[in-house]
Design goal:
Radius of gyration: 19 Å
Structural class: alpha/beta
Strand content: 25-35%
Low-confidence stretches: 280-289
Mean pLDDT: 91
Order of helices and strands: EHEEHEHEHEHHEEEEHHEEH
Number of strands: 12
Helix content: 25-40%
Shape: globular
Amino acid sequence: MIVVGLGKAGCNIAKAFSKFPQYETYGIDTHKEADITIKKRKSHEEYDEAFPDLRRKLKVKGEDVLVVTCGAGQISGGILRLMEQLSTHNRLRVLYIQPDVSLMSENQKKQEKIVKNVLQEYTRSGLVERIYLIDNLAIERSIGDVSIVGYYETLNQAVVNTIHMINVFENSEPVLGNFIQPHEIARITTIGVVVMDEEDEDRDKENWFFNLTSPRDVVYYYGIGKDDLKNDGTLFRRINRFVKSKIEEGLNVSYGVFETSYEQKYCYCIQYSSMVQSYGELLDDQDIG
């Protein structure tokens, strides 16, 4: 998979993906340390109007491409122009990072809302295969206390590790599972982890990286070591009990169990929705398909 990051946050996340051999990464920004440096513009609108043609530098064809950006930076105004250049002959996914909007100016909030909503509409139309919505505050709550030094690196690693493992599981055969194909129009997603309590299975808890409205499908990917798969007689009951507890009307819930080389049990998860996720005042009129 090719990972293309736009802006500071996008570049940092692309760089975090580079630790895995399965990814080829590019970072696009205005500073000279970026893999691809572009001219700095004065506004969000200028990046959209004057975004450079990078197709000679991004020689990508017939690939799965993940485009990463955050709506807080003005450079995110060029995201659609970048995606247009990448969309020919490639399969696009988007990873969108939502910053702490409470600390943003009114202009930044407007800019962030436009980027996030437009990317979701592109995804609903089928021009993008899937969008992952990530809220930095939600990740922080799921991780717990995070030190100031290395704050964003910690959050980025949580996102990258989760997406990477879901990618691995989606391309692997489960030992056991009941996967249900997500709805075709449910392309707006978020990811998360299930913390499996070693002492009390009743305390198993899912932590989502975005508060997704009206999910239609949820998939749990369990990574279990070989010894536990062979010797833990409670495991099948525990997984079934947890998954069944998440079933509700209008929601498909499925799971897969995969053998890993790790001793620790872990579980990653993904939610799918067909509803554009916006601010509260916009939610009431969204058509969920």
